[in-house]
């Protein structure tokens, strides 16, 4: 089911993957370089409804408008705020999440919007090769239970680079920023996605 939502940043789009008897909603947005068709978002949307969690895949207004470049963080936050009433209106706990830039949005707005928790997929801890440009404050400031799912070879920050903090970490061995697994690795692409979905299923079950 597709739902169109008007926000102050433009028209957003939610693709719903509903659980039969949901106990929570997991809202996930895309990054700056791709849409909701990426492998990790599709895998989560395919598995979580079977475990009582409805998944809302959110396309930010800039993607819906067909633009190639994401706007400034402030505009991304505005778009996310605009879709929130459609999520909270179901009167279920809402877990805020996303991948890459979408993870940053979820972290920045979680406390303000009343999110139950945050799921950060491929959190871009820093620009590639620029560890001094850390965005750790966004992750550490969510104020709610937070799960980070990070590729072991993510150039935006591998698991070992993350500071100590009040969040859980799941490492996807050999995964890059898009959780792609090299052919020489001892883990296949399908198994890597299972690491993600199994971890998210377990974590969401502990929340609600």
TrEMBL record:
Gene3D superfamilies: alpha/beta hydrolase. GO terms for molecular function: hydrolase activity. The keyword Hydrolase applies. The keyword Hydrolase applies. Keywords: Hydrolase. Residues 23-203 form the KANL3/Tex30 alpha/beta hydrolase-like domain. This is Putative alpha/beta-hydrolase family hydrolase. It comes from Streptomyces murinus.
């Amino acid at each position: 089911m597709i739902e169109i939502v008007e926000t102050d940043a433009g028209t957003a789009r939610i693709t719903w993957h509903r659980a039969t008897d949901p106990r929570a909603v997991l809202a996930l947005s895309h990054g700056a370089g791709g849409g909701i068709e990426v492998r990790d978002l599709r895998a989560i949307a395919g598995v979580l409804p079977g475990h009582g969690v409805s998944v809302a895949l959110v396309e930010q207004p800039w993607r819906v408008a067909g633009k190639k470049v994401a706007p400034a963080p402030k505009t991304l936050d505005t778009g996310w705020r605009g879709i929130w009433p459609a999520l909270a209106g179901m009167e279920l706990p809402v877990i805020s999440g996303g991948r890459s830039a979408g993870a940053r949005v979820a972290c920045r707005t979680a406390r303000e919007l009343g999110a139950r928790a945050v799921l950060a997929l491929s959190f871009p801890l820093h620009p590639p090769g620029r560890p001094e440009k850390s965005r750790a404050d966004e992750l550490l400031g969510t104020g709610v239970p937070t799960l980070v799912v990070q590729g072991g070879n993510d150039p935006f920050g591998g698991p070992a680079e993350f500071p100590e903090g009040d969040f859980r970490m799941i490492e996807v061995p050999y995964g890059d920023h898009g959780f792609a697994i090299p052919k020489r690795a001892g883990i296949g692409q399908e198994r890597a996605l299972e690491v993600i979905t199994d971890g998210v299923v377990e974590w969401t079950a502990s929340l609600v």
